[in-house]
Amino acid sequence: MSLERFINQQTSSWMSGGGPYSDVVLSTRVRLARNFSDVCFPTVFQFDDAKQIVEQINTATSKKLSLELLKMEDLSPLQKRVLVEKHLISPLLAESSLYGAALISEQEDISIMVNEEDHLRIQCLSSGLQLQETLNEANRIDDMIEESVQYAFDEKRGYLTACPTNVGTGLRASVMIHLPGLVLTRQMNRIIPAISQLGLVVRGIYGEGSEALGNIFQISNQLTLGKSEADIINDLGSVVHELMMREQSARDALVKTSHIQLEDRIFRSFGVLSNCRMVETNEAFQCLSDVRLGIDLGYIQHISKSILNELMILMQPGFLQQYAGGPLRAEERDVRRAALIRERLTMKETN
């Protein structure tokens, strides 16, 4: 296993599109925030503290897990960008030069971020909707680490973290969900505030501050204090199931009332992706969303639905520049993105 493998491998196992409810839910992520009891939080610690944490967690995990240690100081800005695009590290960790590190599994379904906002961010990823299963895996890794490390924990407050919103269970669970029906029927603007009132938050494809490209949203819990892990998972799961039902109803309504317009939109987007010579990221995401919807509705039958999962990573600026071997101007990226998408669609059609 090597850095080159993580950078060059196109998709992770959780992007396969084979999980439960994968026609709407792309992936499930569970993240646990943890800190060592005898070391200052990353906001105030020193380099020696950071180095000690990296060494301790690497030793603790090497006994039972096969993880590759990647230190942020050893990575180029482009390499870090690719890892962010693959959801293996956060943008905040990518900005770290000397303190940060990540431990990543070969299947890329486990990623332990070290010295980000907290000492540890244990992250597990699964395809489709698998909240309880993903939480179980994260807890298994958490328990294993705790055999060698003493966490900062308070009997009343729970796990202590750098950000008050993570105090308690330290659990952030999120679901990446594709909602073109609700967007096209203009329901998302009133759904998002309603979700927020339930203690959940709706974000874009790369979390806080990012856009909902291609009608893909992240739904996650907002607070971790005062709720058990089971409550957080159940509440999120209930909202996601409600969203899935509403999305299906919206799709059914579009097929019933706007069949020709919907089919025209889908095949126009397919035509753009199949023939364009230049395409920007936002337009590519929107066209891919339309094509994915066409696949789910049965309008397009010769393309696998995993195409959205695959291409939403491959067409990102970091990946395009990694394959090019260096920096590209925006126009050059648009040309390479179009060529890549045409090539992939041709391969899917041939297969």
TrEMBL record:
Enzyme Commission identifier(s): 2.7.14.1
Positions of ATP binding: 27-31, 87, 121, 172-176, 203-208
Keywords linked to the UniProt accession: Allosteric enzyme, ATP-binding, Kinase, Nucleotide-binding, Transferase
Gene3D superfamilies for this protein: Glutamine synthetase/guanido kinase, catalytic domain
A GO CC term assigned to this protein in UniProt: extracellular space
Activity regulation annotation text: Appears to be allosterically activated by the binding of pArg-containing polypeptides to the pArg-binding pocket localized in the C-terminal domain of McsB.
Name under which the protein is recorded: Protein-arginine kinase
